[in-house]
Amino acid sequence: MKNLYKGILTGVILAAVSSFSFAENDPLVGKWKTIDDRTGYSRADVEISKKPDGTYEGIIVETRNVPGTEKMVICTNCPGNLKNKPFIGLPFIWGFKQNPDNPREFNNGRVLDPIGGKVYKGKARLSSNGKRLTIRGFVGVSVIGRSVTWIKH
What is the annotated signal peptide range for this record (predicted)? Predict the structure, then answer.
């Protein structure tokens, strides 16, 4: 009987510890490889972090050129204070908030198209295994927009 209680107590402790470590290991936070939906090539790596206000922000940490094109280093088409800033360190997505009803969905964000220079409303969804992130940038309603999928490093 003593072993049974010890086994139950061990199980409860392990369950509590694993739930704490999952909470600390936010699946959205980390480095993501962007995939251009038009060319199929990876154009950049983005580091997503969670800010103190609970929103998520992604900063470009590496860029790549599409074969046959020059590597872009400055955001010449970006709006406002982002204009003519280097791509490295540029905020690419920001303001995303986790949906309390579905922890794999993130809404109310903004997405920068650094090539076209426009900022769009955004939403995102993590795959069930946390290895793919589908981001949708749109104007007005989500039906008018495009989606891209990123792969976690």
Answer: 1-23
Of 122, 130, 62, the C-alpha closest to 94 is: 122
Do 12 and 19 form a contact (C-beta atoms < 8 A)? no
In the chain, the amino acid numbered 134 is: T
Q: What is the pLDDT of residues 15-71, one digit of tens each?
A: 333 333 344 589 999 999 999 888 888 989 999 999 999 999 999 999 998 888 888
**142 in Cβ contact with 123 (< 8 Å):** yes
Contact 153, 33 (CB under 8 A): yes
Are 39 and 81 spatial neighbours (Cβ–Cβ below 8 Å)? no
Q: Is the pTM of this model over 0.70?
A: yes
Q: Which domains does the chain have, with CATH numbers?
A: 27-152 (2.40.128.520)
Which sign does the torsion angle of CA 66, 50, 121, 105 carry?
positive
pLDDT tens for 83-122 read: 999 999 999 999 999 999 999 999 999 999 988 899 999 9
What is each CA distance from 23 to 17, 27, 51, 120, in whole angstroms?
10, 9, 15, 30
